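<tokenise_the_fold>
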Amino acid sequence: MPLPVQDISVDTPRTSRPTPAAFAQVYRELFAAGYTGICSVHLSAALSGTIDSARLAAREYDPMVTVCDSRAVAMAQGFVVLAAASAAQAGGDLETVAAAATAASHRSQVLFVVESLEQLRRGGRIGAAATLLGTALAIKPVLQINDGVVAVRDRVRTTARARARLVELVGDIARISPIDLAVQHVSAQREAEQLADALQNRLGDRLRRRLVLPAGPAVAAHVGAGALGVATYQLPVG
């Protein structure tokens, strides 16, 4: 006798921004620990309301907290944070540190490919790439974070070609100045390592630092399993 079929529904993963109270608590703890200024760097305001919560909390501590929009996600945001931290370690004041973060945000880029646009669509983060939804089965888009939102950089036919195109596009970036890069993935460690090797072979001495990292849970929830991305940071010239 066949077993009854169970109705199993799988919820789409969702993310939510921290509350202003959560940020205020962190700021309060840092000031209590002796810090005199905070540069609070967050993911693109066009993709998340996180920065709004931070700004609301920062009002209580104005002008000791400066909130900065990285205009990016994942390790591209991380490169902005590292630039700000470097300025702070060099003795810069809060204004100098915030300026370093802002400058770094214009030197950081994200290029990525996904197995499906569905996760981005469901999460409402698809931006200009929404025009691809009707033809998604016929192409494999190469996406980027452009002015803080998801946009189409190129259209190719296969996954292999999309990954090769990532290498080409990052090579174009590195022609301007040497770069740091991070290959990030969602459940695709082997493919990420292969992509990182291809990038290193292509870039040679134009590559200063290479990282291979899993994407964080929030990013993974919006791009889905199998996604591969490259975050780049152009080193300042001079």
